[in-house]
Amino acid sequence: MTKGRVEVITSVERRRRFSSAEKQQLVSASLEPGASVSAVAREAGIHPGQLYGWRRQLGVRARIGFSPVRIAPEAVPAGIVDRGTIEIEFATGAVDTAALTAAVAVLAEGRRR
Question: Which residue from 24, 25, 82, 100 has the fewest beta carbons nearer than 10 Å?
């Protein structure tokens, strides 16, 4: 019976240590407008969960805000039945796709709070 290839490990890979300043810099980068925690973590070579952990350690919370909503009346041409069309325009440019998908799913179900 022959064995396959054998891998010999000659060195010990150690955990990377981050200074407080490095942690603060990565947390700050993840809080920038339009920044993605996953992208910042990937660039630093860490798991996104680690970055969220550092946020908790440093007592930093992401700012969650709402954009102002304006409902503009639009005249429906005579003879056309309005089926409840909703047009959403994002002025900020950065859209959280998960939140948008969840909002649209709730609207599509027709649930009321």
Answer: 82
